[in-house]
Amino acid sequence: LQKLIHLLRATDDPLIQEQALITLSNSAAFSVNQDIIRNLDGLSIIGGMLSDCVPKVKEKALNALNNLSMNLKNQEEIQVYIMQVCRNVESAPLNSDLQLAGLRLLTNMSVTSDYHHKMINSIPCFLHLLSEGTERTQIQVLKVLVNLSANPAMTTHLLRAQV
Question: The Armadillo repeat-containing domain covers which part of the protein (predicted)?
């Protein structure tokens, strides 16, 4: 894991970055590895990949963060990327793998109400995706909206959102 994180930091090659992110994502399926990756500063390295201009690299970074977000301590660090993830979801091609990866991460990050306030500005986008997206996109958006709707503080934002 340490070598993979070092490799991510050291290379600009998108193919190598993709493969390293896939491997880290698969490794993050095991809770012990989630802590190790966090302790090796892997979350900030992976989070930094969200600003990459290569869509596949962003997608793989989102997938890795999604798997890493199953851990509350990791969520505390990942939450700094929520607004950037929302922007990625909004700017990604409709129904793309990149958009779905972002929505999956937002679903995990919205399970508790701790970070709902960071998603308020994206509610109109979520509602647009609900009406325009394919079934896969709609299901992911609904998961986010259901999580947001469980928070009474979000009621006004959800009901006043312009689509």
Answer: 1-163
Digit-coded pLDDT (tens) for 52-70 = 889 999 999 999 999 999 9
Contact 89, 122 (CB under 8 A): yes
Other Cβ atoms closer than 10 A to 72:
9
- Domains of the chain, CATH where assigned: 1-78 (1.25.10.10), 80-162 (no CATH)
Three-class secondary structure of residue 71 per DSSP: coil
Q: Using an 8 Å Cβ cutoff, are 103 and 140 in contact?
A: yes
pTM for the predicted model, two decimal places? 0.95
Backbone angles phi, psi at 12, to 5 degrees: -110, 0
